[in-house]
Amino acid sequence: MSKKEGGIKEVRTLKGMRDLIGDDYFTMQGFFDKAEETALYYGFKPIETPILESEEIFTTSIGEGTDIIDKEMYAFRTKSGDRIALRPEHTASLMRAYIEHGMQSEPQPVMLYHYGPVFRHDNPQAGRYRQFYQFDLDILGSEKSINDALAIKTAWAILEDAGATDLMVDINSIGDKECRSNYIRELTNYYKKHINALGVIDKERLKTNPLRILDSKDEKTIAINEHAPDAVTYLCSNCKKHFKEVLEYLESLEIPYRINKFLVRGLSYYTRTVFEIITIVDDKPLTVCGGGRYDYLAKELGSKKDVPAVGASFGVDRLLIQPWYKKHPPRILKKPKMY
């Protein structure tokens, strides 16, 4: 909103926000309708969580040393003094709902899908906004490796329905609380040997979240990462077995994959399996879906025991601008019975 002469104000959308009008709205809704149809087919049920949550839901679960918490989350204090935040992602809200509504007592696993706007104070660019839309799939209450593969398979089917081709799964395992500490110690020692070559951001990550350095976009750090220790080498026997089973399931489903030792995902709650689904656009790789396992998130949010869980998430805005995207008509547009 900007002032004109005479005090009259010109109103416009905030930076990084936009209106969905006419065909833009139908295109967005068409994707959600088709994705819902696929999710329901594979056994997922719907849930919708509030846009506003207690700030600590996200600061506790996502963790320090992530860009979301350090730079991007919209958080503020209410008139009554409560600290609340616009949700920057869906998973923490979903786990809060799972705990709050006693879903632990239901037959496990609980399979849910949800979608809607999320908010991050990011730098707007093509296909990225400060209010953007995600579609998520989550399977809670089971540590079985078949659920990791099911989340990937369902996400894969949604992408194929949307028109995506040349898909590939990048996958890694970052271990559990039994074995990851050994890996992080080795990784930290490795980076300390190269600390003078690390950028300011990566030096700070070394103190708060060394795994995030593997995801660095700094050219010097990328070169250092080429010889960094990989997580798979340090997996305990249970994590190795779990990861091996996930890969075998993907092979049986004929889903192509490649192990990417640099893949960690950006949020602190991930454990064991992490993955991204990649396609090629203009000869460049584009991540169109990401996710992984988050077995310890429930305890961080106050649960008395761990709730093993795995999920996948789509950035919908980015999908809708791709040249291969099929514009599915939303259910509200019905074909005429007579023409």
What features would you describe in this structure?
The protein is α+β, with helices and mostly antiparallel strands. The protein has helices at residues 23-41, 55-62, 67-72, 91-100, 145-162, 180-193, 200-208, 219-225, 237-252, 297-300, 316-320; strands spanning 2-3, 9-10, 45-46, 52-54, 75-77, 83-86, 110-119, 131-140, 168-173, 257-259, 271-281, 284-293, 309-315. The radius of gyration is 21 Å and the shape is globular. The protein starts with a strand and ends in a 19-residue tail after the last helix. Strand 11 (271-281) and strand 12 form a beta hairpin. The chain has an 8-stranded mixed sheet with strand order 3-7-8-13-12-11-9-10. A 3-stranded antiparallel sheet has the order 4-6-5. The model has no long low-confidence stretch (mean pLDDT 88).
Distance between the termini: 46 Å
Strand content: 15-25%
Low-confidence stretches: none
What's the helix-strand series? Answer: EEHEEHHEEHEEHEHHHHEEEHEH
Average predicted local confidence, pLDDT:
88
Shape: globular
Search tags:
339 residues, alpha+beta, eight-stranded mixed β-sheet, three-stranded antiparallel β-sheet, 13 strands, 22% strand
Summarize the structure.
This protein has 339 residues and is of the alpha+beta class.
Break the fold down into its secondary structure elements and pairings:
Layout: E1 2-3, E2 9-10, H1 23-41, E3 45-46, E4 52-54, H2 55-62, H3 67-72, E5 75-77, E6 83-86, H4 91-100, E7 110-119, E8 131-140, H5 145-162, E9 168-173, H6 180-193, H7 200-208, H8 219-225, H9 237-252, E10 257-259, E11 271-281, E12 284-293, H10 297-300, E13 309-315, H11 316-320
Parallel strand pairs: 3-7, 9-10
Antiparallel strand pairs: 1-2, 4-6, 5-6, 7-8, 8-13, 9-11, 11-12, 12-13
Helix pairs in contact: 1-5, 5-9
